[in-house]
Amino acid sequence: MLARLGVFILWLIHFLPFRVIVVLGNGLGMLAYPFAGERRKVGMINLRLCFPEMSEEARSKLVRAHFKLFMRALVERSLLWWSNPARINALIRVEGREHFEAMKGQPMIFLVPHFVGLDVGGQWIAQQVDASSMYANQRSRYLTRFLLHKRSRFRTQYLFSRQQGLRPILKLLQSGVPFFYLPDQDQGIRDGAFVPFFGVPAATMTSVSRIAKIAGAKVMPAVTRVLPGGQGYVLTFYPAWENYPSGDDVTDARRMNEFIEQRVLEMPEQYFWLHKRFKTRPDGEAKFY
User: Fold this and answer.
1) Residue ranges of the domains in the chain?
2) Using one digit for the tens of pLDDT, what is the confidence trace for 107-137?
3) From CA 95, how far away is CA 80, in angstroms rounded?
4) Separation CA 70–CA 96 (nearest Å)
5) Mean pLDDT to the nearest integer, 169-182
6) What is the CA 42 to chain-centroid distance, rounded?
7) C-alpha dist (Å) from residue 78 to 11, 84, 186, 229, 279
8) Is residue 88 a contact partner of residue 121, using CB atoms and an 8 Å limit?
9) Per-residue pLDDT tens for 61-70?
């Protein structure tokens, strides 16, 4: 019942002017900050690990800014889910589109790190090409069905649960259907390795290079920046990586983490600091959370 009520409220919100939605999202972020003690603590631990030279006051300020952007992203999904393409695209400036156009029809992996604007970039891409991606089942079956429906509202989108594995995605990749991939969270060490992230060993998925090798696919990073106020978003396509995969999965994972670090330094408040990025630890090492 609560899930349906939340969806209804978001549906109402999408009728508001964008600048009003931005103010609403920022306000909700400020309200959520005092009550989200556990997530606030996770964010502070992550920042202490990644930026040991940063003062506690600066870290606290950054986490507050992230809460506002996190809630903005949640509220602004109402636009992605119900607004027409013209309204959505009017808010998005695309940089590096020539890289995207050059790879159309070829096996391609969109490397999408966990920044708050990632869904905006995903919707823009979904308007341009058929693509595949993975999803995690929600606790509510209604929410799972709803999110799948909204993520597939443009063109043909192939959505697979993590339980289905990568086999169907590999087949689609080999046929030229790109894969929208978010590989930078802690999913354990079973399909990964400990690779430094801001100098801290982090369980990092090594599947990007393996998928690229099997499918003969190029890897193209796509990062969306949320602009302040009512200015909208910037979706940036970077050139497809050359000499990738290298033949060494750990070296390739290190390259991915270093790329994400560079983007984090450009907009530190927009990275998903509330995720337990360093949850999995090497044997014998104390837990951080």
Assistant:
1) 2-270
2) 999 999 999 999 999 999 999 999 999 988 8
3) 20
4) 25
5) 94
6) 18
7) 6, 11, 28, 17, 31
8) no
9) 999 999 999 9
